[in-house]
Amino acid sequence: MSASFLKTFYIFLLLSLLTPGINFTFNNSSEIGEPKCTETERKALLTFKQSLVYDFVMLSTWTNHLNNTDCCKWKRIQCNHQTGHVHLLDLHGNYPYTPYLRGAINVTSLINLPYIQHLNLSRNYFAMSYIPEFLSSITNLRYLDLSHSYFAGWIPSTLGNLLQLHYLDLGQKKELENASIELSLIYSKVSYKAMKHGIYSKSKLSYGMYKQG
């Protein structure tokens, strides 16, 4: 048997043994390469959490531990699988039963979550605080539910700047003032913008009505 044949045989054998290892490495690289939430958005969520009193179970995964830095894996959050940006935040409670959030909501930190499309803060207890006008800065919002969370005062007309909004529920009891008038203005404003941009069919707004009493 010639030396060149043996050399070729051993090279072929070596490549056969190494191939599974090479594939395994590529597979792992693919998993490692999946997008994670950005540092800015992770910090924004932790800042938002600090402003609230909450049931431990509700936000138990929202931590700053070294092995838990990917907020896309936290409970009540969904991220875009391609970009890693947070696009859904579902923090609905079950007030008066647990779990639910309490306190005066500090929504300014959510400005650093500009890609959110779905925000649900319903059935919590926000201590008769005002609905934050900063919500109108989250311009990608398509779904907003603040119902039965003990907000008080006027409904900010700036919510009418949310052109992408498809669903709005602000249903409370008697806490919000001039509710029906403000809702009509918001609805008209969003509808007018939608028609102006030729996307009325995509921006039809549904909203929760108020029950006085």
Automatic annotation (TrEMBL):
Keyword Repeat: yes
Keyword Transmembrane included in the entry's annotation: yes
Cellular component terms per the entry's GO annotation: membrane
Predominant place of localization: membrane
Residues annotated as domain Leucine-rich repeat-containing N-terminal plant-type: 40-80
Segment forming the signal sequence: 1-24
Subcellular location field: Membrane
Any Pfam family: LRRNT_2
Keyword terms, alphabetized: Glycoprotein, Leucine-rich repeat, Membrane, Receptor, Repeat, Signal, Transmembrane, Transmembrane helix
Alphabetical list of InterPro entries matching this protein: Leu-rich_rpt, LRR_dom_sf, LRR_N_plant-typ, RLP23-like
Topology with respect to the bilayer: Single-pass type I membrane protein
Domain of life, source organism: Eukaryota
Record-given protein name: Receptor-like protein 12
Organism: Vigna radiata var. radiata (Mung bean)
